[in-house]
Structure formats: structure tokens, C-alpha cells
Specification:
WH_DNA-bd_sf, transcription, elongated, DNA-binding, 61% helix, alpha+beta, Arc Repressor Mutant, subunit A, DNA binding
């Protein structure tokens, strides 16, 4: 889970995840969407996302195609859901106290 949270903390990586959410995208196309950073930097971001389990990579000839792995978010999403549910339970208890009081 730590690797996932670190990976999504970077805005460029979040942008890459959005690009790859609905379809496979070639590394070159991803790099073209981020002209403000070098291709080696884009490659490093892709490696981080693959290592964190958030992207699948597939070779197609000389190209590498990337696609989001939604299941890679499962553990982090479960943790956040737990935190959110606890906050909602607290809010509900406080609202019920005020309503009764």
C-alpha cells in the first residue's frame, strides 16, 4: 500500500494513470502528453507505476503499451474506505446526540 500511495502522490503519475484508465497507451504517446519533462523522466514515472502494481505493460513489437491496473488500488482504497467509514460513524453519533439533546 505504501508504494501505491507514494506513486499517486506525484501529479505527473496521476496524469499518466488518467491517460491509461480506459485504453492501452504507448510510451511515446504518454511522453508526448508531458512535453515539460524529459523522456527518461517519463520512463522513470512509468517504472514507478508498474512497480507499484498500478500499470500493466505489454510489448507490441518495439513499442511498450501501458494500461491502468485498477486492482492495484484495492488495498489503499480499502484503507481509505475504512478511514472514511469511521469518520462518518463519528459524525452520525454526534448528529444523533445533538438531535436527542
Amino acid at each position: 500500500m505504501d508504494e501505491v500511495l507514494v506513486a499517486v502522490a506525484d501529479p505527473t503519475r496521476r496524469g499518466i494513470l488518467l491517460l491509461t484508465r480506459d485504453r492501452e497507451v504507448a510510451a511515446g504517446e504518454i511522453a508526448a502528453r508531458f512535453p515539460m519533462i524529459s523522456r527518461p523522466a517519463v520512463s522513470q514515472h512509468l517504472r514507478v507505476l508498474v512497480h507499484a502494481g498500478l500499470l500493466d505493460v505489454r510489448r507490441d513489437g518495439s513499442r511498450r503499451l501501458y494500461r491502468l491496473r485498477a486492482e492495484g488500488f484495492a488495498e489503499a482504497a480499502g484503507f481509505l474506505d475504512t478511514m472514511w467509514a469511521a469518520r462518518l460513524d463519528n459524525l452520525k453519533r454526534e448528529a444523533e446526540k445533538e438531535h436527542k439533546g
